[in-house]
Design a protein that fits this description.
Four copies of one chain form a homotetramer.
Chain A lengths: L2 E6 L13 H20 L3 H6 L3 E2 L2 E8 L8 E11 L3 E10 L7 E8 L1 E2 L4 E2 L4 H7 L6
Antiparallel strand pairs in A: 1-4, 2-7, 3-6, 4-5, 5-6, 7-8
Chain lengths: 138, 138, 138, 138
């Protein structure tokens, strides 16, 4: 089963049009990745950054918003990995309203491994590669 | 000359990695579109929403982040239109650090015209179409 | 036992100084109030707003930040009620790092009941008053 | 004349109640302080942090929200200094809708000087004290 993080649309996530402000979806993706690290990698993303000095900035993203989210919606953000490169990971996100089978939004975020001190490219560490492998969708 | 909105990276835009949190780029795109409406369409986006009840939610987006932005950076966000459909607009954004000629980030956001009361599709009004036409890049 | 909402400090909550950006504490207070409504009032705050058209904007706030929060911190936000007026509620928030007994931050937010359509004052409904009463600290 | 920073309420600043989400006011205060540093102190706040390693976290705040702000509002945030202590500054903010003489919101933020590397108390540097003195209201 792919990993899913359950989140709630918050009062402050809503914009003037009465739906979730679209940059918040990207925040939801990031929060889901943070939860994925804790649950599936076995290390909080905070520790990856603060202790291992490994950073994972987004270098490319795509998203499709099919239906609006409203205040009060609960969502499951499914996290999959499409590809693990030498120093990058291609993440896929699927946002479902709880109980629905069609996603309201889909996203792709490619993150590049960097050394946080020098901001230069850094290979995916083995412990991270092994933890991500079972989540590669085929 | 394409339209450019000048913005500043703010203290609160920075994340744990010491660079702009990537969802903030999408916020910058939106703010640049808001400024574009005031400057080039001749109507504040607030009036489009509140008086004309015309909404423009994002349905698709792509972005590429080439170099990080840091606190203190000033940026120009260039706004172009790639295509005006019957009820959608394909916007392009180019983020430059002030004084640089290579963008640090590029984005595409497709927005779909809707009636804000019914949240159903609505054609781009003529006054908006005419105002956008000179900004279509060829 | 006073109600506590457990939250996590997120990657994007951090500012250039490496600690939680102080407006985010106010967001934490609001999220804790939202959780309080679901858990203790028995009605999601979304339903209060969308179905009952009852709004609860902040009219006064005070906060004290004793120690910084960092990325990776988990927090409990304790929610208490100091006073229920005719059309206002005086909420108190106490933010604890999980497992600590001294709060890192304290807050007071006075919210005023309004009719969301007219934005005029509205008395606290009886069902809300009864639900809040057991949380009044003495 | 006290310093005023002109800001615009943005689409994404609005919440489910159709007004500015109250934590955004605290963000407005911070942005106004950032502008104040550039305009009145003569040094960008980014440089204060990044070059001087001087930080200024909020330790106490109070705010009063008298009237809601809506999307499309332009505001002037007036910045005053109530008191300069050995290692703290007591800032006062007054938010006016452009053209109005009564503030819609008022705020106080006490910031404490710290060394950003050790997060320990640090006296206000002389260059900052001198720059702030003319803004002390009497």
């Amino acid at each position: 089963m792919p990993y899913r993080a359950r989140l709630k649309v918050r009062f402050g996530d809503i914009d003037q049009a009465g739906v979730v402000y679209y940059p918040r979806f990207l925040h939801y993706f990031h929060v889901a990745m943070e939860e994925f690290f804790s649950a599936e990698v076995g290390m909080d993303y905070a520790r990856v950054l603060l202790d291992h000095r490994f950073g994972f900035p987004a270098v490319h993203l795509e998203a499709e918003f099919r239906r609006p989210l409203r205040y009060g919606d609960e969502i499951d953000v499914e996290v999959k990995v499409a590809r693990i490169g030498e120093a990058s990971v291609d993440w896929r996100y699927f946002v479902y309203r709880v109980g629905e089978s069609e996603p309201v939004a889909l996203g792709q975020v490619v993150t590049a491994g960097i050394d946080l001190d020098s901001f230069t490219s850094r290979s995916i560490p083995d412990w991270l590669r092994s933890a991500l492998l079972p989540h590669v969708q085929t």
